Amino acid sequence: MNIRALFSFSIASLLALAAASTSTSTPAYSQGKIRVVVSVDWEGDDLIESNLVSIRDFRQDYPTIPMQHFLNAAYFTKAGANPSQTSALMHSVLLPIDEEGLHIHAWRSLVQASGVTFRTGPSFVAEAVDLRNCLADCGNDVMLTAYSESELRKIIKFSLDTLEKQGFDRARSFRAGGWIANRKVLRALAAEGITLDSSATYSEYLKEQWGNYNLYPIVGRLWPSIQPTSQPFVVALTSDTSILELPNNGNLADYMTGDQMFKAFLKNVELLKVNSGRDVYLSIGFHQETAATYLPHLRSGIDQIRAYAEQNLIPIEFVVAPL
Ligand SMILES: [Zn+2]
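Above: query sequence and zinc ion SMILES. Below: predicted holo structure tokens.
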């Protein structure tokens, strides 16, 4: 085949390819899809009706979207807590399609109930906890990394046991308070049966509201390589232990407008196009304690994602974990 023949052959091939690709509306990346995980961080602070109502309303309006709950056992360790009432309130916003994972903030009541001596710092907000101001409870801003691995295992085990006793699944997934999980925390989690962590996040999403606090630089140092398109990866912990990391790459609604969540989605659409047909994960979400204020952000983000996906034939699926 001479050069001219080769050239015309190539043109013909390209035309045939073009015809094939326009004869069907299936995009080139149709073998993979965007899997959107909606996570909920339960802070262990309070269960106020207005927040629970807004979650129930969301569930009615988006009945097919499962939630990845990171539940906190500290609701049950507060002074005067009513376990059956607390459990009923929490269950009132859960659906069978949901995943029941674990969230831990180092509340004093939780730490002490776990048989561990409470530590007042370091804090991811500012100064260490001043015990003179610790009335009902405190310590939710103390970094989990303040505790030793054996202390963490006690707090994790107590949390898992408590939630299971109150009728929840024994959690297999986890997110750290303030996204602050280092290898020590991950080792303690794996030792207590946790197989998936979702504490990694893109620290720049936190800059606007946390830029003047410890949280922003600490998250940046803990997760320096995480971007809005970071995908699940395995963290090897010991010679025979590992944990799957699902980056919370779209962060949470308190720090993300609906437009920002949609932009994070679009970045992952670009990844899907070059990702050889593999699924791409986007992890977004909100906090139970601020649901009434910030769930509208999530609604807006999801509505934009769904509309764009439909118009542009982007396959999407709402899921709870990359299993
Ligand atoms: Zn939290």
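Residues 41, 43, 103, 105, 177 surround zinc ion (CB under 6 Å).
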